[in-house]
Amino acid sequence: MSPTDELSIRPARGRLLQILGVGFGIAVAVGNTIAAGIVRTPGDIAAHLPNVWLFLGVWVGAALYALLSAAQLAELGAAIPRSGGQYNYSRQALGEYAGFIVGWSDWLSTCGTCAAVGIVIGEYSRYLLPVLASHVSVKAIAVFVIVFFAALQFRSLHAGRLIQNVSSLLKCLAFLAVAAACFFYGKGAAVSSAAAAAIPSGWALFAGLVFGLQATIYTFDGWDGVIYFGDEVEDPARDVPRSIFGSVLSILVIYLLLNAAVVWILPMREIAGNNFALGAAAQRVFGVYGDTVIRSVMVLSLLSSLNALLLMGTRVLYAMSRGGLFFHPVTVVNKGGTPWLALLFSAAIGVFFAVFEFQRVIAMLAFFFVANYTLSFVALFVLRWREPKLARPYRAWGYPWTTGAALAGSVLFLAGAIRDDWGNSRLTLVALALSYPLYLALKWAAQRAARLEA
Q1: N or C: which end of the chain has fewer CB within 10 A?
Q2: How far is the C-alpha of 157 from the C-alpha of 334, rounded, in Å?
Q3: 448: exposed, middle or buried (C-beta count within 10 Å: 0-12, 13-18, 19+)?
Q4: Which residues, including other chains, have CB under 8 Å from residue 189's CB and lie 6 or more apart?
Q5: Nearest-CA neighbor of 163 among 296, 30, 254, 28?
Q6: What is the pLDDT of residues 119-145, one digit of tens each?
Q7: 389 beta partners
Q8: Residue 454's pLDDT band (boundaries 50, 70, 90)?
Q9: In terms of CATH architecture, what is 17-453?
Q10: Taking residues 65-91, what's their average pLDDT?
């Protein structure tokens, strides 16, 4: 690293607090990952794979892809323990522009997802509290929860950590309670009928499996939450790998239990195409209160997700500013360990998306999350070759075969996304082409501002 680079990554003032452990690493991943996807995805998958074993099998398949990917990111996260996520790996291995693409798309998609989560919270809250339906809009609720959680995090990292740990624990307990109630009170009659359902064959089977894996991989995304906090983890050499693998396994257990509970209660024909299959199963168990129970659990789940998204998005913008790709003052950290200007920018963009509902932009940026994984796997190959003496407290098991398999899976996933959603993918490729002049402009502006400040 050149002296110029060293200066460019020096924070303006203040410092991040190194106080996070494995518990937080798992909590932020679970909080970020398990949200609205678990409600909608089962119905979509069952419509393509109306057999219980295939239905459950694609969830295991997504977990295997996540485990392959986890081994690679565990090595990178332990070797390059910097807050900001995958931006750091692509920048160090592939250069500033690659880092910019990963960081900028990651930050915007995280802020956009934050807005989308806020809107769903608003929709569910208006349903649960009819008094809100007549006086408060969905957008107003979305803006309120984003600003509220940003205010809580503004005070200190301790506050953000406490909220994340408690909300993720309550979320897990609530989902496990729902699954237990389904198994305890359900009769299990649906399993035999689901298992006996006709298995698709030929192209229909292949297309169903591809769709199922795409849907479940999207739903699993977020298991790598700890890598956004590398500078803040107490012992990254030990805690980053443990957090990553613990997160994948925790998410898999909850997803399998919830989906198994649904097929224990409902025949596959009732799950297929149902956008609220978990709610339908809860109604069989809790009667007229089932829908209210699930929506209440979902509000808790989404609040936990919103807190995690704000924490993560803040660290990405902080890292890019520290690396000279955004304005240097955004690296300022308050006494509580919060990069408060980065937090304000992130919350403001989240509010902007929530108010103007840029679903098209969010859908375009969602394409980048697998592209970012792809660049991270390439970065692992490059760093193993170019920096063989880099300290690696954890080494990816099975390298280079597991790394190659994860990379191949990501490439196939991107090819499938381009084929199935060419409209958004085309616009994403256009945005990628336009990112280079944006990169040059932001870098020039950041450097000019730094010279004026000096």
Answers
A1: C
A2: 10
A3: exposed
A4: none
A5: 28
A6: 989 989 988 888 887 778 889 999 999
A7: none
A8: low
A9: Up-down Bundle (1.20)
A10: 95
